């Protein structure tokens, strides 16, 4: 039975390539059915890939090759919780190293323009520290970073 709620992501024409990249990069990710257009449409021709069913870390998605009318932006992002620096580095480097772009505070964009937050669990725990001065030190440290450096966050926590 299909999921009752699926995230639909609009791509210019790279939905299948994006889905395959996500399935190779993230655990619990896969590519399902690839549907071809039964007729011509504004962004393509009959037989072109129209939609791709896939999942990213267990979240059901549908990639739509809708053409250049709409672009991804930071109003939507996948937030990936990482357990250590090696996992943080692996995801960050996969996204940025595959034609993506670095941003600030643990955010980056993949080559299709989709935003990702590669967020170490240590950072999330630091923000929720009941000692507000500790949380602020961690926050201030994060504000100077692109990819999150867990050792620097831990140093900020210690003061």
Overall pLDDT metric:
96
Number of strands: 8
Round the Cα radius of gyration to an integer and report it. 18 Å
| Helix and strand run | EHEEEEHEEEHHH
Net shape: elongated
Q: Report the CATH architecture of the largest domain.
A: Roll
Task: Provide an overview of this structure.
The chain is an alpha/beta fold and 159 residues long. It has 2 domains: 1-70, 2,3-Dihydroxybiphenyl 1,2-Dioxygenase, domain 1 (Roll); 72-159, 2,3-Dihydroxybiphenyl 1,2-Dioxygenase, domain 1. It is built from 5 helices and 8 strands, in the order βαββββαβββααα. Strands 1-4-3-2 form a 4-stranded mixed β-sheet. It has a 4-stranded mixed β-sheet with strand order 5-8-7-6. A hairpin with a 2-residue loop joins β3 (49-56) and β4 (59-65).
Describe the structure concisely for a colleague.
32% of the residues lie in helices and 28% in strands.
Write the topology of this structure.
Layout: E1 7-11, H1 15-25, E2 30-36, E3 49-56, E4 59-65, E5 77-82, H2 85-97, E6 101-102, E7 107-109, E8 115-120, H3 121-127, H4 132-142, H5 150-158
Parallel strand pairs: 1-4, 5-8
Antiparallel strand pairs: 2-3, 3-4, 6-7, 7-8
Helix pairs in contact: 4-5
């Amino acid at each position: 039975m299909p999921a009752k709620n699926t995230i639909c992501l609009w791509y210019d024409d790279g939905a299948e390539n994006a889905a395959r990249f996500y399935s190779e990069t993230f655990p619990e990710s896969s590519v399902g059915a690839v549907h071809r257009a039964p007729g011509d449409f504004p962004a393509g021709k009959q037989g072109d890939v129209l939609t791709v069913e896939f999942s990213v870390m267990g979240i059901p998605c549908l990639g739509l090759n809708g053409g250049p009318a709409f672009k991804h932006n930071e109003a939507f992002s996948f937030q990936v919780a990482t357990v250590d620096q090696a996992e943080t580095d692996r995801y960050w480097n996969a996204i940025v190293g595959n034609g993506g772009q670095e941003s600030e505070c643990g955010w980056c964009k993949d080559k299709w323009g989709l935003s990702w937050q590669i967020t170490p669990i240590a950072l999330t725990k630091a923000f929720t520290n009941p000692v507000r001065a500790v949380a602020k030190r961690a926050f201030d440290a994060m504000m100077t970073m692109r990819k999150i450096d867990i050792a620097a966050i831990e140093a900020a926590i210690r003061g």
